[in-house]
Amino acid sequence: NQPLCLSPSPSTKSSLPASYSNGQSKVAAWLQESEEMDKCTEELARCQSSLIELSKLLQSLEGLQRTQSAPNFTDIVSICLDYVRRDRRRSYGNPPVDHITTFLSLQVPSLPVSASMSPTRLHSSNPNLCAEQVDFQTPVSRQIPDNMECGGDYIKLQEDFCLIAQKVHSMLKSAFNTVAMEKEKIKSVLSDQEQSERPAQVITLRKSLSQALSQNAELKTRLGRIHSESVLSEQTISVNLITSPDEGGEQRGIPLTQQTSNESRLSMSESVSEFFDAQEVLLSASSSENEASDDESYVSDVSDNISEDNASVTDNVSRQMPNGDLAGSAFRNGRRPCLPAPSPDCSNINLWNILRNNIGKDLSKVSMPVELNEPLNTLQHMCEELEYTELLDRAADTEDPYERMAIMAAFVISGYSSTYYRAGSKPFNPLLGETYECIREDKGMCFIAEQVSHHPPISACHADSNKFTFLQDVRWKNKFWGKSMEILPIGTVNVILPSFGDHYEWNKVTTCVHNILSGRRWIEHYGEITVRNTKSSACICKLTFVKGNYWSSNVNEVQGFVMDQEGKVVRRLFGKWHEGLYCGVPPSARCIWRPGSMPTDYELYYGFTRFAIELNELCPEMQDLLPPTDARFRPDQRHLEEGNVEMAASEKQRIEDMQRTRRKWQDENDIKHEPRFFKKVVDANQRERWVTNNTYWELRKSPGFINMENPNLW
Question: Where is region (Disordered) located (predicted)?
């Protein structure tokens, strides 16, 4: 029985939140000085004394109960009544025997007299007994004077026990109320303490923000210096070919001046984190070195690595060209960061009048208003799938076949990421014989595409790099279902990694544009993709683009796995095709890929990514190198990009009429169109495919497309 005390103990102090550590001493001092708490302590002390007294009373009651017999009155009456009945049967007419008195005098000498044993009550419970027969009060009373005294003590102890218990209850209730009030006061004190600490926290946050701004300004200065050192002039740097007499006439190209890629020249208004995000993807091979460095050396390493990569990438392009050089082409020191004009307003176009007669039909044969187009065509869209070729470079350097397959899965998904903001417009349909060329010195890649068939529409492309080869031929079917439009791709995509002899192949999923006629349009991809290595059965990858709806939580969700040849899952993949892909199990999964940031005001410019903005750019030095069939020369597409919608609509109508006239003339003269740069082959599975005939880059070098006869498409 230890006395109760409410003074703050060490355990009480340690239980307080850490944020209130500065105010603990004040709270403790206040608790000690509080009159209410002293009063509560005194009441609890008195309550403890009363509890001790109650314990003693309880022990006395238990002692009396052990020494005093407490018979059951009901059993006594029952036994007496049995005696009376038996006696009446044996001696009928004889004087009655007072069995009750006899029994009580023998068996219950200590029974106290109570009202329950009155003659009246006994007579009323049994009418056969008269008052005289059960009058046993006098004999019993002569034998229990001592027991009466014991019963009185027992009752008195009970009354004292109840009184003290009520007093204890009252004191405990008062103490409880006091503690509750003091609890509210403590809350108030702690709240005031928190309010007083907030200005200090604000000062700390402002100081941290000031330091961050200072570091950002320093980083901006460093990046500006790196950029100025990498750019020698605003003029075009021509690549001259020099013949070395020591090498027997073998041509050797002068190294290109270091180029800065678009990824390393992000707008300074963007966050520093985006800069490091780009570094994480582009320079994953050197991430272990960067982790061990401090902040300043880390930024320096990033800048140096980007510069070295750009210089090596430029040389890779020159080596990767089929003719061994860039054919006298020239490169600029930067690419445009924005389109010339924003997208036009399409709110006044009544699509229902155009589409109501084409429900369930292929829309590729339906002419649409030019306002619904974006200033890119399908050939350029195929090139846009190569925005994240650094994933292919990573795969080409990865020894583990399972990890290599997971990276390939990330590349497959990355090809859909640019479509997230593009549901409001459609690309131009390429004309038969239309081409597109793209040389990316920053990615070490050269790309060529051609429209090889018009009905059905088939587009073929081929891209080369020192680490991979990319090729695909895809035909498209568009179907309008009243509220939505489905785009059904038919064909396969192929990537070859020469370093391991791998040949990856996969199909494409269905694309659906919702709310065509009204509401906000949104795009969805759904279906299954199987990625196979046709040269090895070590593993296979399956990806599922989950079909949902605009409000569901799993919209744009992708799930997948990599299995070994025994069917065991060795890699689990999940993510969203517009946000990124992760490998593993949450929350410890690692990010394999995530898309880059969008440019400023992308909503006003067709939702284009930075890479898409650059695809239709035409600089003067490229005009004499490209064939006249290149999509950059298409007038309707160029007018739309420049914001001249009326001219774009007029040119689009004229170009489509020219194509119909050419097709009619070819049919009348039984002339079959032959693609210039691609040929049809039959693979081992008896499937027809379109592959490059390896003539584009040779003709580009000599004699040059400007010196050749070219078809007039527009």
Answer: 243-264
